[in-house]
Please model this.
Amino acid sequence: MLKALLEPKSIAVIGASRTPGKIGYVILKNIMNYGYKGKIYPINPNANEILGLKAYPSVLSVPEEVDVAVIAIPAQEVPKAIEECGKKGVKVAVVISSGFSEVGNVELEEKIVKIAREHGVRILGPNIFGYAYTHLNINATFGPLEIEKGNIALISQSGALGIALMGWTIMNEIGLSALFSVGNMADIDVAELSELLADDPNTKVIAIYLEGVKSGRGREFVEKMSKVTMKKPVVVIKAGRTSRGMKAVASHTGSLAGSDALYDAAFKQSGIIRASTVEEMFDIARAFAQQPLPRGENTIIITNGGGVGVLATDAAELSGVKLIEPSQNLINAFKQTMPWFGSPRNPVDLTGQAVVDNYIKALKVAVESPEIDNIVILYCRTAILDPRDLAKAIVEFYEENKVNKATVISFVGGQDTYDAMKYLNRHNLPSYPSPERAVNALSKMIWYKKFVEHKTRK
Model:
């Protein structure tokens, strides 16, 4: 049933509007202009045509089947719309409308769920901004039209934040496979959507902004998510960590925020990776989306600056990333890649005199060495090495040699280093503006790999 969200042959917009700026107008326009190839049916009893498409007075008057209905009408009119969706055989109703449990109107929310269940309709929402599935060019949201395509699925319990993150991912060139706003989770919840995405071939990692699960569904959440994480990594940022935050959550989506310690324990038990900030959530998701899982724990740091090398070393120790003690053979091999005053140990310090050739030679040693599982590449801006030249050389090396060792990168400097990092990210080499962020992302990948292996052995 939920699969209809990812592969609908037709979408109806109940509350489609001819007025620019209205939610029903923006959603219809986004579905059309993002390139959805299925049938689109605007539903509006006061219009014959909207944006060049024939409009219908009711979903019941649509001559063909309707898989998904996006509902953007006043809350009090939603029960009738759900009833009609049920009679029509709609599989999923995406209820954009607000005015339900989030404002204390619990009865109305329970009513629409009851009607939906009687007719076998599933509800996404209410109180949401819609959803998107980029593989089939579906953008049924009232957010930005353009969504960068990729393999990170994002689920957000906050509508406004979700829309903001759409813009944020575009600016940061973070590609999404899917985007779901869940709002009040009257029916379909985060765990069910995660199950759906766990089987989606276009999704490599699931990122979630979560405020809370419904009361009484905690055990079910852990059971479902434990199965999901065996298929795909899941990264969650959990809001409502403090007592004031919990009160804000309760008034926002009507969810039970609950004890933060309980959520922490539930996440660890389920194999969910917890992030503290939106930035960290996407840092980690990007690493999973772009790199193979670590084969083991043994990690090497390659740098041209002692300072960033020390920062990365501290970050590794604090986050549980195992830095290898290189064998004498490996030390000798690294010595050949640097000036005589460089350091062939770990971090491998190529010194500030390093040029592209030094980096590539050191990377060749690291990639070929059976001692090394993971690679951290660091670069500090110097006058003798343009970061864009280094980025191009690294990409070329990785693509030519089909490198399958987990790698994270940090370039520290000005605008040209940011340009270089964007280039690396576009070529599936996760890059960060600080060594700590790079190492942290790698640490979560290593933790997840160990978790899955431990569960598999049980």
